[in-house]
Structures are given as structure tokens and as C-alpha cells.
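> tool_call: predict_assembly(chains=three)
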Amino acid sequence: MTHATQTVDSMRPPFPAESGAGVYSNKLGMWVFLASDVMFFTALIGSYIVLRFGAPGEWAKPGAVLNVPLTAFNTFLLICSSVSMVKAYAAIQDGKKYFLRPVPGKTLRDGGLKFWMLVTILCGAAFVGVQLIEYFKLVHEGFTPAGFRDGSLLAEHAAADPIKYGLAVAGLYGSSFFTMTGFHGFHVTCGVISMTYLYFTKVLPEKYSPQDYRGIEVIGLYWHFVDLVWIILFTIVYLI
Amino acid sequence: MRWWLPDAGSTFAGPIDSLFLAILIITGIALVVVEVGLVAFLIRYRGRPGRKAFYTHGSTRAEVIWTAIPAVTMVALGLISNHYWVLIKGRSSVPPNAYHLGVHAKQFEWQVTYPGPDGKLGTADDFTVRNQLHVVVNQPTAVELTSEDAVHSFFVPEWRLKQDAVPGMHITAWFQATKTGQFELGCAELCGMGHYRMRARVFVHTPEDYKAWLAQQAAGGSE
Amino acid sequence: MTTVAHSRTDAHAEHAPMSFWRKYIFSTDHKIIGIQFLFVSLFFLLVGGILAMQIRWQLGFPNTPMPGGKILPETYIASNGVILPEYYVQLVTMHGTFMIFFAIMPLLVGVYANFLIPLKIGAHDMAFPRINMWSFWLALLAGLIMLAGFFVPNGPPRCGWTMYVPCSARSDLSGVTTGQLLWSVSIVVLGLSSVMGSVNYITTVINHRAPGMTWFRMPLSVWALFITAILGVLALPVLQGAAIMLLFDNVLGTHFFDPVAGGQALLWQHLFWFFGHPEVYILILPAMGMVSDIIANGSRKPIFGYHSMVFAIIGIAFLGWIVWGHHMFMSGMNPTLGSTFMVSTLLIAVPSAVKVFNWMGTMWRGNLRFHVPMLNAIGFVSMFTIGGLSGIFMAATPVDIPLHDTQFIVAHIHYVLFGGSLFALFAAITYWYPKMFGRMMNPGLGKIHFWLTFVAYNLTFFPMHIIGMGGQMRRIYDPTIYDFLKPQQPLNEFISYAAFALFAIQFLFAFNFLWSLKFGQKAPQNPWDDNGMEWSLPNPAPHGNWERTPNVYRGPYEFSSPEAEARGSDFLPQYVKLPTDRDPAPAAGH
């Protein structure tokens, strides 16, 4: 029997059943929940596409209003957190419940679950932090969900170069930007909070094992989903 | 007491009413089959001591038949319906010689803009009247629907004409009235608390009467 | 292989006796949660009914003071007791909202998905009992938020349960501010509750079926609830997204639906109906599933064409995703879309027809027992047929032109939702009442309720087809201001009288339901001689359902089979092991 099958068996509910999905219930449940979340973002992103392609004016040029380099860094942070999530998952599958262990003969340290989960949480929290800072700066400059605030710096720039700033449809631009990235940020925040909760209640007390690491795998699925949504959002909101 | 559709008042009414009747007959037959069948079964197969039910899991042949017949009927209905749908609502089906009026819906009235003596909308001699729609019998007419605020819906029952007026959109709906007389226009989309009183009077004139009315408007009259 | 004991005994560890609060209020037991949904939803059904009575008062007797109206605040009722136009549109809006979101949907899904699924598949509880508990409390919270709308300045929303924009996106158009926000918030919370429920139902059906409960041995009620849960998990989030965009247009100044700033009014309609059409299948499929179970039982015969019935459920659910534009034929969207949506809509009539014929086929050559659930189930079939057939008129786009947004639509809606879903609920509540409460509802009272309801219901809603054909628009405060509608006013009056009678008759059901809780005849273990797994348990069923996970030996509708005959009865439950049966092997890993 392979390693993975062994752990899947013991993560199943302890009563007999027909063969179902072949994955344990917590994971199946998370997949179903993620399907619902896909539909939620489809509504938002689909609306954005409809509004943008039906817009009666030019959309703002990339980088005119939004800070692409800062957000690119933020994207990198989130991707790093997905990588560290994968490493956390691999660590617990190998039974590495610890924080860091020295690797004989190398200067590198071997990270365990506690290390990699912490990295994931910190990167996720940093992502939210950077996004909040970005929001504050944008609102301060005059970019709000309603568009460009009258009398603001941004409104002045836009009046001077309406095509570059997409002045004609600034209202749609603000509406879609803040709603899509805001709800994504909300999802990241929920993920960070959930991971922190698991960290203190299950990871630190070493409740996960190679025989049962359901919470790690399930939150990992959620985290990768959130990352994937961000890749899409970053592309269609910031880059195009 | 009315028991049926309103009197036919436009060229659309013929096909629409015929289609309605055809559907009524088809669904009526289906209804009778089901309801009479149910009652017959209730009586015939009611439980009695010593009776046994007939143990079967079904019949593929029966299934095929009662799947195929509805399917074929629906496809046929769709093809016929689509033919008239395109004629009535198709964007390129507005007759090129149609007489255009502007209808601007707002909470809670209809503002009708007439092209004036030059017969063209959007020129200086246009004039607007509130809650009165005057058209000429037997003449293709197109209303260019716009809305000030909410979604309203332009509905004249006798013409079998209904079209939503959507803010931000310019929608053309055409018709050809076939009966002179006075009718009513109502709003058929909930648009706020005054939705019920978005009523306009509709006058279908002979060409002469319409000319007379136009002249009266030009002279500054209002009726 | 690990050493975790995979015995076939109890599913979960023993726990200390639970307090009253933990056992009945904050319960994670799917059966208790189902019962909680039942009581709360019946309350909201009453709320919806009271709103309907006020609507019928105004429509039947326009501008006449409403009895008891003077207790309402002056934002709703004039000083002489006449319903105000602004209140009328709030009544129609909230009647639809409460009935659809807080009565029918939770009655069919919140109650029966929760109560029936684990019992009927041989499971001990749902896959995620605590999430299940949260699902109930969020639904209740959502309902209370929605109800709060009546008590805030200017009251609840006024733009119809369909909440079209820009009416609902601008408080200067609707006249409502706080009430509109509450609607959006309530919908988002309800969506969360719904998704949590669906996650449970789907996971439980896939992974927790007892050994021998293969997919094609599941009762149709479970199939229907399972497919409905998939619809819910995919449709509700779209409504949540739309409700959030609407909320933001209202409070944050966003412009999603603001044409002046480049937004699109039709965007709301597409989003809403993309959710809305699957929603109406959520409102009918569980009813169909439960009716199938009850008709097979009442006919003492297997369901005719079980596999077709499963595929019909799947077909209806699948097609239900591509018909949403039929609510928008007059909307101004590209007429070509009208053609495509007409095709898909006409096609969805086919699996529905198949189901009706299969129910009839089930009754054909049966040995019919006319118990109260069977009467209501047959009532469902006959009324749903009318509702489904009336849909064909609107599906044919040219005929939709005169009928759209008239009382004809209202007739259609109510034939499928009341004639359909609500009759199915009368059947289901009566049928599974013994399993829930250990007692029987009074059958004599049940029969009287059925017949009176059947008559009053048809007298109320059939004439609405005529009124709609005559051109009466929906949501009209006073039809008599239109000359062309005046001739029909006597029929409006008649409908109102019938509606008042219909409402009053429902108190027979309410009385029967409540009285039988305490004084109903104690129920035998399997009062309907049914085959489902749930009837192997005592009434009411204990926490954890079975001590040892049961085995399943056959399909769900083995009535009057040779094996049953051999045992001297006309039914053979799924859980009975015959000498010729072998124990099913559980899946590897158990």
C-alpha cells in the first residue's frame, strides 16, 4: 500500500460505507465549498468583464491609477505562501511536526510543520497588510469605490489626461476594483485567521500526524484556491 | 367580465392569438390525458381487500414514447414560435417605412415625442405630450423606448405589444395598429410605488384624424 | 495499516448526557436541526400568508379600508385604513421574498435534506454536524434580519422579490434605504447558510452511504435532495455576489447598475435570473423526490422507470442552468437570445413530462392506499401538471409578449409553488411526522384539510390565468384605474374571497400539526408499511440513528414483489435481510 492510501484510510469516518468519492469527507467538503466560491467570484469577475467590454468609454491604462510594482511584489508574497503551504503539507506527511531541525553536514535547516505553517501565515498576513496600505493610499489620492473623488489629486490628473486615467468610466473602475480585490482580501483574511487558529490549537500541540493531517490538507486547498483567484485578478485588474 | 384575451388590435394579434390557441389545444389535450388518467386510476386501482399491485419496474417502450412525443411537440412549437418572434422582435424586422415616435418612460408617466409635420424624429418641430399616445391605423409605427430612471415596460394589450424601457438603453419596438379607437397603455414592470398609475391614453386615428390632431398640437392645443 | 478500530459499532465516542440547551437548542443532530428548520419555516410561511391576505384585500377591494389595518403605522396605511400604494409594493416584495427564501426553500431543503438524508442512506449523521448547526442558526438570523425590514423607517424594499435595478439600487427611486440594506445583508447570510447546508448534503450522500446503498438504490427523495444541493451550492453564491454589488451601489456609491456611469441595468437581471432559475428547481425537485417516495408507497408498486426518474432529475437540473433568459424575453436583451432561451426552455418541459407520466405509471395497476400523504402527493401531480403546462405558453416567446408580467405568470408561479411544492410539503410533513415526533397526525382532519385546500386553492389561482390573459399587469395597486381591467374586477373579488378561505383552511393543518405533537396517536414503528431505511428505527429516532451501521439489501421501492409476497406482505424494506441475501462488503478501508 502506498503512503498516501494509508493515511487516507485512517482519515475516513470510522464506520463502514459504500465507496464514495475516494477522498475523505473533509477534503470532499472543501472541494464542494470551493465550487461555491468559484461561483461567487464568477459573479464578480463575470460582471467586471461585462461592464468593461460594454463600457461607454476607455478603461484606465494599466498602472495609471494602481501601483503595479507594489502589487506584483504582493503577488509574489502570496505565491510564496502557497509554496510554503505545500512544504508544510509535505512536512506533516513525513511526520515533521517540529519547527526547525539541523541537517547534518549542511548549513541549511530542515523545516517542519510549525515552521512552514508560520511562514504561510506571515506571508498571508503581509499580503493583507500590503493590500490595506495600498487601499489607504488609493483612497487618500482620491480613488474610491465610487470613482475619482472630486477635488482630489487623482481627479486632477484624470482631468488632464482622461484617456490614460479612463475618466469616463472611473466609477465602474473603482466599483469593480474595490469589490473584487476587497472580497479576495476578505477571503485571504479568513484564511489567515483559520490558519492561525489551527496553528495554536492543533499545530503547536502537535495534534497532526502522518496518519491524520486533514486540517492541513483542507486549509491548504482553500489557500491554493485563494492564490489562484488572485493570479486571475492580478492579471485582469492590474495588468490588462 | 372578460374571459379571453383583449380584442385584437394589431397585425401581431393574429399570429400571437393563433399560437396561443394552438398551445391551449396542445396543453389542453395533455391536461385532459393526465387529469382524466389520474381520476381513472384512482377509481380503477383503488385498494381493495385481496387486490395485488402489479410488480413492474417500468417499460422502456412506454418511456421512449412519452419522451419522444413531448420532445417532438416542443421542437415544432419552438420552430413555429421563433418564426414569429423574429418577425415581431427581430432588430432588422422594423419596417423601413415605419413612423417613429419617441417614448420616454419615467416615474410615473409616459412622455411621448412626436416628429411633428416633417415626420422625422430629432428635429426642431418635435413636440412632447404626457401620457397620450396617438398613432395612425394600418401604419407601421415604431416607438423608440428610453427611460429616465427605473426599468419600465411599455404595454398595450390590444396590440399584443410589450417592451421594457431600460435606462441606458435605446430600444425600438414596432407595431401596426388595425383598429381605430381609444385604448390604454400600462406599465408592466414594477418601477416604484407609482407603478400602478403609469397609465396613458392611446388613440388610434384614421390618417385624416391624425393630421387634424397634429395641426391642433402645432396650434398649441392639448387634447 | 493503522490500529484505529474500524468496528461496525457506534460512529462516535460516547458523550456525557447533554443539557437541554445542547440537546434541543444548539444541537448538531441532523434530526433536531431538521425539526428546528420546520418550526421556523412554518412561522415564515405564516408571515408570507399574512402578507398575501393583505395583497388580496387590496386587489379584491381596492381603496377599501382593510379590517384591522388601523394597527399598522402611517407609512403603510392611510388614516382611513386603506393600504397605501407604497405599502402595497412592499407587501408583494416581501410576500415573494419570505415565501421563497424563508418558507418553501428551507421547508424542502433545510427540513428534509437534513432530516431524511442520513436516515435514508443509513448514515449516523451528516458529514459535518457542527457546520450543519451553524447552517440553521444563520438561516434563522437571515430571516430575522429580513423581518426587521418592516420595523425600520420607510419599511422593507419595494422593488419586487426580483429586486430589479435601478429601482432597488437608488433610494430616491424606491423611497427605501435601511430596508434595502437589510435585504442584501439577509440574502448574503442566507446564502452562507445554504452553502453550508449543501456542503453537508453533498458530502454525506457521496461518502456516507451504508454498505449496500449503491447510487441506484437510493430513494428518489435522496437523489432529488442531492441534485438540489448541487444546484444550491452553485447558484446561491451568484445571488450573494449580486446582492453585494447592489448593497455597494446603495451604500458605497459604486456604479455597477448605474447607467449614467456606464453600469448596466440588465446586468442585475442576468445575475439574478442565472441564480433565480436554478432556484426554482431547488424549490420543486425535492418536492418531486418526496412525492415519488410517497406515490410508490401509496400505490404499493415500485416507481415506474426509476432510472429515467433519476435522469429526469439530473436533466432538469442541468437544463435549469441554461434557461434563465426566459425571464428576460421582454427585457431589451438581444432578441437572438430570446430564440436560444426559448429552445432550452421548451426542452425542459420534456423531463418534467416524463416525471408526470412515470408517476401515473406508478399508480397504474397499483393497489392504491389513499392515506393523507398519498392524497396530497396525487394533488401535487395534478396541480404541478397545470403549472408546468402553463409554462409552455410563456416559453413560446411571441405568446410571452402579452403574458409577461401579468397575472398569468402569477398563476403559473403559484401552481408550481403552492399546487406543487406546498402540496408536496403537506404530504411530506404528514408522512415523516411519526419519524420526527413519534405520533401520527390525525388522518380525518388531514383528509378534510386536503379536500378543502384542493378546492379553495384551485378557485383562488385558476382564475388568475384569465385575469392575466385579460392583461392585468403584476404588482398593480389598483387595477380599476384601467378601463380595460374594470370588467375583470368581479373575478379579482372572487379570487380574494377564495384566498381568504384558503388561508383560513390552513389553520386546520396548523392545528393538526400542533395538537398531534402532544395528543396524536402514538405511532407504530413503520406506520405506512414503507421500505425506507428510516423505518427500521424507533419513532422518534435516537441520536446517532443506528448503533451499528446498517446493511442495505435491495432497492427502495420493492413493493408487491414475489419476495415480499413470499413473506406474506406487500412491501420489503431495504434493511431486511432475506435468507438468500448476502451481506454487502463495505468499501476498502472500512
